[in-house]
Amino acid sequence: MGMKFCSLSSGSSGNCQYIETDRMKVLIDGGLSGKRIENLLSSIDVSLKDIDCILVTHEHIDHVKGIGVISRRYDIPIFANEKTWTAMSKLIGPVENKNIRVIESDKSFQLMDLGIHPFRICHDAADPIGFCFYYKNFKISIMTDTGWVNDNMKNAIKGSNLYLIESNHDIKMLKEGRYPWHLKNRILGTRGHLSNLDAGKILSEILKGNGETVLLGHLSKENNIPSLAYKTVSEYIEERGLNVDKDITLDLTYRDKATRVYVL
User: Which residue among 167, 204, 218, 222 has the highest number of C-beta atoms inside a 10 angstrom radius?
Assistant: First the structure.
């Protein structure tokens, strides 16, 4: 078997991703109710009781809402760095000592047949991270909730077969929208969220055009339109000489339903 990936939910109303190898079934974040996560998993024929662990990017509620409940109910270990554990412990409730696993940002580790590299990102959280996953010859990278992408982050995700990358907002929609100024400035800042243009620019710098899959994630309900995100990113990539239909696969994630299951 190859590596499987599904975005169960992506957006400010809740984030949860799923990765499967021969020996591991892993959730990345769980920012929805336990029941909702259970239903989303069952929509792709996976049971919560088969999940081996939960990995956490950062402590914001749209990423951790359901993880405490799930850990207690199904005895699942949670992996997060020390500052994230400190910041989220009140939000997620008690977790058994044996299920509290502390990882270090920028330090790779192995879980059974899955290699994992947590890399630092730029967001207004305690110590936020993205993840690269390695299995056999395959690599998946998840990078959302970041206002800035530096060389370290680009180098971390380069060479992936599948990318989940943030394409949060259209800059014009955000600036002209009804959000208060302090929130607009937060989103536009280096510790906020990537725009459609940012996503296109970063992807055009790292994509090789050898059949990679790109999923645009964390689309704002207020300040973006799925078709606009797709159009902006694909135009930017094509201006750099790649054909979106032939060289790569560009898809969207959803806030209210799972994507299809991608098999590498």
Answer: 167
Q: Answer whether 0.90 is exceeded by the pTM.
A: yes
- For residue 1, what pLDDT band results from cuts at 50, 70 and 90? confident
What is residue 32's three-state secondary structure?
coil
- Which residues are CB-contacts of 235 (< 8 A; sequence separation ≥ 6)? 200
The domain segmentation of the chain, as residue ranges, is 4-263
**CA–CA separation, 143 vs 165, rounded Å?**
5
For 15, residues 6+ apart whose C-beta sits below 8 A from its C-beta are 9, 29, 31, 57, 62, 63, 144, 217, 218
Inter-residue contact 171 to 103 (CB < 8 Å): no
Number of residues in the chain: 264
Q: Which fold has domain 4-263?
A: Metallo-beta-lactamase; Chain A (3.60.15)
Q: Which of 4, 70, 88 lies closest to 32 in space, CA to CA?
A: 70
CB 144 within 8 A of CB 218: yes
Instruction: Give the residue-averaged pLDDT of 140-159.
Output: 98
- Which residue type does 226 have? P
Q: Which residue's structure tokens are 């909702």?
A: 36
| Percent helix, percent strand, percent coil in the chain, to nearest 5 | 30, 25, 45
